[in-house]
Specification:
The chain has 5 helices and 2 strands, in the order ααααββα. It is mostly helical and about 150 residues long. The protein is flat.
C-alpha cells in the first residue's frame, strides 16, 4: 500500500509561509490575532502528526508506542481545530452580538471528542493497530467524524 503525504508537506510549507507573513505583518495585541496564531500552530502540529503517522504506516509500525501518542495528538487536533475556527468567527462579531452561551454549548462536543481521543489508545473506539502493522478503523470512527461536524 503506497501512502502519499505530498499534500501534507505542501500544507506544511504553506502554513510556515503564512506564519512568517503573519508574524511580520501583525502585532499580537488582540485576542483574534492570538487565536489565529494558535490555529496556525495547531494546524502545523496536525500536519506534522499526519506526516509522522505516514512514516510509521509505511514501515508497518502502527502499534509502536510513539505512533499511538502521535495518533492521539492528531485526533486532538482534529477535535480542536473546528472549535477554534468557530471561536475565531465568534470573535469577529460586534460585542453586543456575542453570545457566551453559544461558546459554552459548542464546547460540549469538543470536550467529549477530547475524552474519546485521549481514551482511544486504550479502547480502540476510533482506530486501533492490528498485528499486521496497520491501522484499522474502529466501530466509533463514523460517530467521531459526525461529532466533529456538529
Amino acid at each position: 500500500m503506497a501512502i502519499k503525504d505530498y499534500y501534507l508537506w505542501a500544507a506544511l510549507c504553506l502554513l510556515f509561509i503564512e506564519l512568517i507573513h503573519f508574524i511580520y505583518q501583525r502585532k499580537l495585541t488582540d485576542r483574534r490575532s492570538k487565536l489565529f496564531l494558535l490555529i496556525i500552530f495547531i494546524t502545523i502540529l496536525h500536519c506534522i502528526c499526519g506526516i509522522s503517522i505516514t512514516v510509521f504506516l509505511t514501515q508497518k509500525m502502527a502499534a509502536h508506542p510513539g505512533n499511538l501518542i502521535i495518533t492521539t495528538l492528531l485526533y486532538l487536533c482534529q477535535v480542536l481545530l473546528p472549535y477554534l475556527l468557530f471561536c475565531l468567527s465568534w470573535l469577529t462579531l460586534p460585542l453586543p452580538q456575542r453570545n457566551t452561551v453559544l461558546i459554552r454549548i459548542a464546547s460540549i462536543p469538543v470536550f467529549l471528542g477530547a475524552i474519546v481521543s485521549l481514551t482511544n489508545p486504550i479502547t480502540g473506539f476510533i482506530a486501533h493497530a492490528e498485528s499486521d502493522g496497520l491501522w484499522h478503523i474502529g466501530k466509533g470512527y463514523p460517530y467521531f467524524i459526525y461529532g466533529l461536524m456538529i
